[in-house]
Structure formats: structure tokens, C-alpha cells
Amino acid sequence: MINSSSFRFLHSTHRVLFGANSLQDLGALAEEFGCRKAAVLLDGAFSDGPVQTRVGELIKPLAPEFHALPPHEPDTESVEAARTFLEACDPDLIVAIGGGTAMDTAKVARMLLSNPGPIENIVGPVGVKMHPHASLFICIPTTAGTGSEVSDSAIVAKSGTVSKQIFRSAEMSARIAILDPELGTTAPAGVTAASGYDAITHAVEAYTSLWANPVTDPLAIAAMQKLAVNLPISFREPGNLDARGECLIASMLAAMAFNSANLGLAHAISGALGALHHVPHGLANALALPWTMAFVQRDLGDKGEIVAGIFGADSVAGGFSTVRHLLDLDQSLDDFVKSDAERDALATAAMASGQVKMSPRTPTPEDMRAIIEAMRTPTGGREPHLNL
Ligand SMILES: [Fe+2]
Predict the structure, then answer these.
(1) From ligand 1's centre to the CA of 50, what distance in Å?
(2) What is the pTM of this model?
(3) CATH no. for residue 260?
(4) Which residue range forms the structural domain that includes residue 45?
(5) Per-residue model confidence as pLDDT tens digits over 173-190
(6) Which of 22, 50, 211, 350 could form a disulfide with 180 if both were Cys (CB 3.0 to 4.6 A apart)?
(7) Looking at the domain assignment, is residue 3 inside a domain?
(8) Measured in whole angstroms, how far is the alpha carbon of residue 34 from the centre of its chain?
(9) What is the Å distance from ligand 1's center to 146 Cα?
(10) What does the pLDDT look like over 302-343, one tens digit per residue?
């Protein structure tokens, strides 16, 4: 079923620095690379707070300028605002601090400096040629989730529409990622849970993707092992730096895996839920994953047993149902999608996702519609059952 006889593995980030207080390496890195002017794009939650003050001090000789990003997921409007900021600043060091929003916005806005013109010129999941930008680009994730600090892609909604655009190029990637678990301790528990569930979804979907390969599999397994133990701890104990550090490493490993293996049906649905109903990405994955895994688990072979074992469950779907409940993410699709017509539209949009073809079991449109119908019922942490 899964062809591992030939494969390709892609990874573009040159250096990863990990550790509590590793943010302090920022100044030395700026010096090492001979940077003279810094631009910092940061999550709005950190704007004018201690993190901004600290970064300002660490790279003071580079006269850093700061641009706070709006709280919603990136769209073409917020990316264009970031492009305008970067053009005016003319930096040779660009730093993104925050979750996927900050990193994805910075990735695309930076590419617009070296690829001037309409943003549409560089849209596309494969085969897009982007000219490199000479700046040193450093990503500093503050939550364990997207792993955008080590992936070659970014997702940006097209403002005023319900479509999401994928950008992908090795030129977009961070040269350096700094993983500092101290930065996540102030995140609300709900953010820790939802972003962590996104990382879990990345790991299992990369592991069970038809494009999984002998390099991505160990990365995905390690990510699941770390998240199974440490995500519930991070959720309950926000200040537990060991657990937060393990989750940050896991989210990076999962992204290193999905950067080559791609994802699956939960992301097909969560992408459509984000575009059509603005459901936060991690929560959208939580709504979908137990049910998409209930659909594919009969075709997972040994991999199914391995995943279930990692989560201490009788089945893959049961494991993700339990974790979802533990993290207070066991919601009904009805909280966001209200009518049969909307559920039909959601199923159609999910079927159009490129992630569907990575699934170890290919759904028919009727299967997808049935999965979405099932998502209306919370599982209470129990095994989800699909009659498909
Ligand atoms: Fe995701």
C-alpha cells in the first residue's frame, strides 16, 4: 500500500536552536551574520509587552522595528500590510515571533520583497519559482502547533473570499528556528490545546499518508510519542517547561515529516472549515480527526497498531477521541455549521482539497458527507463508530 521504494525528503531550515531562554541567542546570531537592520513581525498578543521589550534589547544595535499582526489567521490584506512594513524598513534581518499566523505572514511578505508584483504571482502548492531574498530569516514559534518554523509552505486566505491559498518554496523557509519553551507559558490553555492538537494531526496524517517514507516515519512517530505524554501536561500545567519543550520539539518533528509526506482527510476538512466558517485551525482538526481516523483505520495495517499503542488505546480513532476529550476540544460541528446545505458545501470543499489523494483510504463524496455528518456528535472521549 505505502510505497517506500522511492521517495524524496525535503528540508530547508539550516539551524535549530532549542532551550529555555534560547531567545537570548538572537543578538549573537545578528552579529554572526553581520546584520545591520532588523524588522520583527510578532503576534499581536506580544505587542508592547515584555517579549517585544526583550527582543528590542537583544538586537538594539540593529534598531529593530516591530509590526504587530492581527489575531486572525493570515489573509492577503494582513500579508500586504506586512509587505509595506518590510519595504519601508529595508531589513537584512527578519524575525517572526508567534504562532503560525506570524510565521506564515512573514514567510510570504518577505518573498514579496524579492518577488515584487501581485501576490498571485507566487501562489501555488508546487512548482512556483520564487527569487531568494538576501535577509537572514529567523522564526521563533511561541506555541507548539504549526511547525511553520521548519516547513517550506504557508497558507494565506484570500481576503473577501472563502478561498485559502498555498505558498510553497524552499526560498520561503526560515534559515534558523529558535525553540524557546519559556515563550509559551503565557498562552491560554485553549490555545495550547488547539495548537497542540494541530501538531498531533500533522504527525499522524504524515505517518499514515501515502507519501510517508522511511525518513518521515521516524520523525512522525517521535512527534506522536512526545505529544501523547506532554501535550496533556502542558494543557494542565502551563508553566511546565519540560513538557512545553517536548511539545515544541514534537511540533517541529511533525512539520519536518509533513513537509515531505503531506497530510490527510482531517486537514482536507479543517482547511474547508477555516475557509468557509472561520473555525480556528487546531479546533477544526479536533472536530475532524477522530472521525477521519475511524474512516481510514481499517487500511493502516501495522501502522494502526503502532499509533494506537503510542496513545494507549484499543484503536487509532479511539486514541484521538480520548486526547480530544482530555484537552476540552470535544465539540460538535453544529457549533459552527448550522444547516444541511452548509454541510453539503463543506463536504464538496473538503473533497476538492489536494490532501484527499494522500489518504490511505480514498473517500467517495458520500463517504465525506457521512464523515461530516458524524462530526456533529461529540464522542465524550469514547471510540467513534462509522458505518462506512
Ligand atoms: Fe495543520
Answers:
(1) 28
(2) 0.96
(3) 1.20.1090.10
(4) 22-179
(5) 999 999 999 999 989 999
(6) 22
(7) no
(8) 31
(9) 6
(10) 999 999 999 999 999 999 999 999 999 999 999 999 999 999
